[in-house]
């Protein structure tokens, strides 16, 4: 198609898309060969979304994606230091650059790059040509350097924010119209691209100067007239540098092109080529979406072999062995086969099949994710592929009657009748029930008097086999292992303010959605169950994962009593403390400002108080995170700023305590029980650690007086006490065992203060009369080494010079060589096997262990720490699983787990027996699976509140 008057050209800044995709998404590797493809995945999805959105009356007639050819261009001949400050591309991003070009061509889009020129120059040239031909241009980018092109039929589109950038938006950003943007940029310079500009002149000043004098040349010619001496001297002395800067920021709009606008005519993607590329990249979700769009068949069941075209895309791949459950070779999931059961006879007939086979998948539909307040709406069941049903119990008509009562929709079973039929089946010891995240459904049924047992949990099977590789939600597992995309819940209940609860969903749609969940759960179980043994994680699943479900469910249902008056009083105290700190902060700043505004704080610290080293982000605001403020507090040459930063850190901590805990916890008190019921995620952390949510009771700070006081609000009921039992230095004990450290093992065996012993060994000082600061340094190193702390990190923790901190770490490894040997052996094992393992057989996969670049260090530290933290998590899991039976004879309940600590509520008369019993269980939890060469020690405390007990 010829490009003529009225045509519309879209120019996509491909390089910007790549980097945005790379930084927005977590690392992702192609499973067959470990090739990094995270940026390609993000880029491909962005291009697909662009194509889908670029339709309608204003659709482009011509389009192209433009890339940077390399980092060296003609500008480096003008100014050799141009862009020299930019770090090289991350190691894991480099191999993805050519793949993004392949992706562009796979979508049948023009893919352009020219040696010696930047993508922006090609965009400028094409924009000029299109404008001269009478056409319009939309540049898909938010890059400020392209804003000089806006106007006369050229606009920009920030695709991420869906914002059109025209002349007014450019003026709002630069203070001048687009035709004077390069003058402002020449004056202000650009630290990112190393454009020098005029020292000390920023965007605002530059805009004002250009507005006053009209253009850059006139300003430089009349620089002697400027009244401000420093500004005048800068413009006179650096005139040549400013002119060079203008050449650097001016886009070249006459790049020699070997193609014309006509060649950029929009063409539909060729389905076979596009699907082949996506299949080769192993982007299953997008492959399915594209196949559905073009009416191509979507593979179902086991992953299909690559087509010839896909094999060519993936040429050079070196497949690695990886456990991947094979889905059943059965028919695709067909929701039309599902049965809606509304009478007892039909339900009994369906359950008879399950009783004959011995297996039944079960799922519940409710009105809320909060199991303690959710109302049961329906139950879905499956006995195998193609055999699933839904039993609606609580669907409503959607409105209330004259008396405010919600009416049930017709065509449902009475809940009491259905549950009476289900109860003996769900509690039948000879019938295995299957669930996905069974803890949720277990609690829903428990609230109706049904204790589901025995059961399997597909989420926990996935967690045992694939921890560290991917998430374990049903939708993700279905797409990954069944090649089936479940019905999205949003299609039924909507989103935002218009969202409805499941009881309002029509019965036909509810049946398809709910029964599908049950069938998917069954199919996942059939795929996963045989693989547990092959993956050598059967013991982990059977002894650490599955038995924990009812233990946690009982704890969550018990909840913990919280005194709202204590929380309210603390909120008031915190508010007063914040107000006082604000006054002190503003006095140090010498002006009033919003302490909670990072932008205003940055301007105070770096512009007004002159703290060096301020770094601005994409928004133009200075970074003022905790790490930045911590560094400022150590600056002796900037005492005022150091004091201000310290007080802001205090203010932020108290503000977080107030908003996250003393205010929020009051809203989490269950109106029916008067207690707070947290929910534990079993499969949240890769290492086996539990995560607490809604509310999170594991992150209540204990290092500050204010944080510790929050625990005062967690109280025992009358006649009872709160008891806390906490493992003492369990991770250090595990380290001493696995790294075989004789000195540490001997110290633990004799009950010696391990931190004092470490200080004595490292610094040659006696334990008796030791300076507390010396012990503190040893403690920081002891715990820091487990987490792979660097010299920089230790220096920040101890507020000492980095060289001194690194010296401590080096001396530590010299004194305890077994630790270095353990670390080296663990990393080598991870690289060879793709996972690490705890003492109890838990596998934590390490897919990034062989990566290079910024993420490599993190992957190694995670691999080193995982067996230690994971073993500690396994030990307390084993203790929790044994605990209910051990304390069943006592008037006590286990309420909370906070990493290495268990919290109980017990009758006052049974405090001592509980402590003795629970301590014995916890200290013996590793046996008989592992015989530790160091003793486990549990500290105990008790009181009227958690604060007193801890």
UniProtKB/TrEMBL annotation:
Q: Which PROSITE patterns match?
A: DNA_POLYMERASE_A (PS00447)
Q: Where is the 3'-5' exonuclease domain?
A: 338-533
Q: Does the keyword Transcription regulation apply?
A: no
Give one Pfam family, short name only. Answer: DNA_pol_A_exo1
- Fetch the CDD domains from UniProt: DNA_pol_A_pol_I_C, DNA_polA_I_Ecoli_like_exo, H3TH_53EXO, PIN_53EXO
Which GO MF terms are attached to this record?
3'-5' exonuclease activity; 5'-3' exonuclease activity; DNA binding; DNA-directed DNA polymerase activity
User: Which part of the chain is the DNA-directed DNA polymerase family A palm domain?
Assistant: 707-910
Record text on subunit structure and interactions: Single-chain monomer with multiple functions.
* Record-given protein name: DNA polymerase I
Q: Which organism is it from?
A: Rhodobacter capsulatus (strain ATCC BAA-309 / NBRC 16581 / SB1003)
Gene symbol here is polA
């Amino acid at each position: 198609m010829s490009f003529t008057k009225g045509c519309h050209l879209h120019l996509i800044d491909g390089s910007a898309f790549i980097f945005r995709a790379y930084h927005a998404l977590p690392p992702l590797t192609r499973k067959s060969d470990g090739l990094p493809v995270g940026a390609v995945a993000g880029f491909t999805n962005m291009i697909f979304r662009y194509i889908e959105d670029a339709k309608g009356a204003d659709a482009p007639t011509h389009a192209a994606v433009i890339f940077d050819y390399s980092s060296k261009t003609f500008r480096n001949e003008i100014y050799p230091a141009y862009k020299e400050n930019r770090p090289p591309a991350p190691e894991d991003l480099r191999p993805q650059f050519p793949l993004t070009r392949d992706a562009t061509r796979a979508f049948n889009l023009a893919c352009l790059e020219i040696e010696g020129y930047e993508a922006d120059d090609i965009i400028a040239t094409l924009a000029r040509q299109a404008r001269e031909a009478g056409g319009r241009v939309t540049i898909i980018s938010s890059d400020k350097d392209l804003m000089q092109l806006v106007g006369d039929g050229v606009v920009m589109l920030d695709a991420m924010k869906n914002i059109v950038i025209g002349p007014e938006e450019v003026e709002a950003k630069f203070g001048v119209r687009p035709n004077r943007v390069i003058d402002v940029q020449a004056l202000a310079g650009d630290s990112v691209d190393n454009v020098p500009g005029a020292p000390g002149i920023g965007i605002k000043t530059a805009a004002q100067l250009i507005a006053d004098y009209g253009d850059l040349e006139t300003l430089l010619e009349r620089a002697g007239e400027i009244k401000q001496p420093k500004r005048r001297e800068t413009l006179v002395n650096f005139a040549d540098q400013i002119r060079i800067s203008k050449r650097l920021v001016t886009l070249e709009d006459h790049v020699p092109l070997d193609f014309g606008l006509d060649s950029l005519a929009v063409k539909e993607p060729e389905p076979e080529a596009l699907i082949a590329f996506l299949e080769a990249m192993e982007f299953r979700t997008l492959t399915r979406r594209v196949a559905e769009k073009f009416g191509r068949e979507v593979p179902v069941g086991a992953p299909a072999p690559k087509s010839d075209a896909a094999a060519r895309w993936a040429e050079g791949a070196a497949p690695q062995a990886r456990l991947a459950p094979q889905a059943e070779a059965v028919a695709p999931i067909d929701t039309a086969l599902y049965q809606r059961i509304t009478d007892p006879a039909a339900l009994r007939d369906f359950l008879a099949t399950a009783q004959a086979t011995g297996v039944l998948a079960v799922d519940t539909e409710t009105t809320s994710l909060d199991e303690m307040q959710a109302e049961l709406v329906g139950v879905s069941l499956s006995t195998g592929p193609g055999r699933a049903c839904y039993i609606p119990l609580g669907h409503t008509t959607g409105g209330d009657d004259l008396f405010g009562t919600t009416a049930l929709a017709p065509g449902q079973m009475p809940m009491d009748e259905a549950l009476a039929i289900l109860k003996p089946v769900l509690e039948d010891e000879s019938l295995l029930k299957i669930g996905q995240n069974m803890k949720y459904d277990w609690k829903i049924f428990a609230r109706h008097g049904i204790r589901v047992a025995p059961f399997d949990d597909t989420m926990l099977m996935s967690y045992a086999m694939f921890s560290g590789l991917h998430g374990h939600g049903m939708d993700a597992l279905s797409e990954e292992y069944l090649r089936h995309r479940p019905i999205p819940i949003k299609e039924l209940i909507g989103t935002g303010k218009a969202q409805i609860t499941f009881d309002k969903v029509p019965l036909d749609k509810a049946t398809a959605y709910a029964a599908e969940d049950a069938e998917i759960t069954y199919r996942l179980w059939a795929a996963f169950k045989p693989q547990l043994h092959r993956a050598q994680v059967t013991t982990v699943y059977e002894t650490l994962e599955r038995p924990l479900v009812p233990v946690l469910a009982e704890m969550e249902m018990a909840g913990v009593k919280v005194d709202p008056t204590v929380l309210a009083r603390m909120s008031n105290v915190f508010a007063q403390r914040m107000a006082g700190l604000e006054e002190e902060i503003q006095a140090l700043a010498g002006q009033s400002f919003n302490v909670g505004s990072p932008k205003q704080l940055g301007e105070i610290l770096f512009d007004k108080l002159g703290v060096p080293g301020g770094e601005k982000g994409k928004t133009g605001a200075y970074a003022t995170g905790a790490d930045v403020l911590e560094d400022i507090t150590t600056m002796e040459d900037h005492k005022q700023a150091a004091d201000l930063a310290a007080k802001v850190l205090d203010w932020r901590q108290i503000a977080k305590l107030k908003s996250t805990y003393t205010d929020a916890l009051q809203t989490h008190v269950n109106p029916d029980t008067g207690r707070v019921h947290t929910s534990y995620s079993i499969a949240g952390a890769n290492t086996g650690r539990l995560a607490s949510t809604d509310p999170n009771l594991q992150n209540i700070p204990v290092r500050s007086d204010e944080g510790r006081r929050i625990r005062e609000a967690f109280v025992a009921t009358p006649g009872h006490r709160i008891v806390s039992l906490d493992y003492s230095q369990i991770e250090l004990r595990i380290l001493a065992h696995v790294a075989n450290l004789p000195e540490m093992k001997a110290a633990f065996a004799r009950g010696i203060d391990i931190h004092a012993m470490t200080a004595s060994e490292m610094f040659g000082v006696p334990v008796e009369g030791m300076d507390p600061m010396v012990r503190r340094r040893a403690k920081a190193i002891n715990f820091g080494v487990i987490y792979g702390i660097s010299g920089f990190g230790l220096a920040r923790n101890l507020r000492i010079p980095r060289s001194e901190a690194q010296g401590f770490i080096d001396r530590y490894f010299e004194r305890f060589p077994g630790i270095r040997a353990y670390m080296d052996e663990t990393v080598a094992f991870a690289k060879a096997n793709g996972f690490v393992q705890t003492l109890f057989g838990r596998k934590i996969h390490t897919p990034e262990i062989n990566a290079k670049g910024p993420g490599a260090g993190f992957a190694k530290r995670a691999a080193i720490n995982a067996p230690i933290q994971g073993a500690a998590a396994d030990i307390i899991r084993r203790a929790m699983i044994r605990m209910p039976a051990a304390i069943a004879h006592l008037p006590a309940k286990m309420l909370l787990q906070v990493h290495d600590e268990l919290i109980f509520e017990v009758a006052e008369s049974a405090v001592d027996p509980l402590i003795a019993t629970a301590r014995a269980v916890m200290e013996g939890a590793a046996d008989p699976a592992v015989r530790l060469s160091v003793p486990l020690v549990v500290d105990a405390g008790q009181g009227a509140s958690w604060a007193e007990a801890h």
